[in-house]
Amino acid sequence: RSGGDLHQLHGNASSRHFPRDFDGDRWIRVEHTLSLHRGSLIGEWLDGEPVRINSLHEQGARTLGTNHLGLQVAARSSDGIIEVVERDAAGSLIVGVQGHPEALAAKAVAADWGTANEDSRLAGQQWLTIFREFLARV
Questions:
Q1: How many folded domains does the chain comprise?
Q2: At what angle do helices 118-137 and 101-110 cross, to 10 degrees?
Q3: Candidate from 18-22, 57-61, 64-68, 94-98 with smallest mean pLDDT
Q4: What gap in Å lies between CA 17 and CA 32, rounded to an integer?
């Protein structure tokens, strides 16, 4: 056993991770700001600016296990759930995200925001920056 933890989020105080009023527009509405860890790659890529995420998950971890392949926590939600992990080792860059920023970035590319708010637009641009920085390094 490698440790770590897994918490059920659906239907409790952390329900913003997977709200009951799910609809099609949910993919492009941001729900909360992530606290970036000092020294993280995504923090560097965004010049330390906080980033928002559209979370749609029912479970989350607050700690990594001991056998975590060198992954480091890069960002957390305000309730302590790990939202981004990363590893930057020789020839092996990994960024894992608990959420669906690809939907925000796709909207940023298409400039098709429909009913999205300004927070969603900004988050889409930020995640697009993260994806571009990641691709430039792999």
A1: 1
A2: 100
A3: 18-22
A4: 9
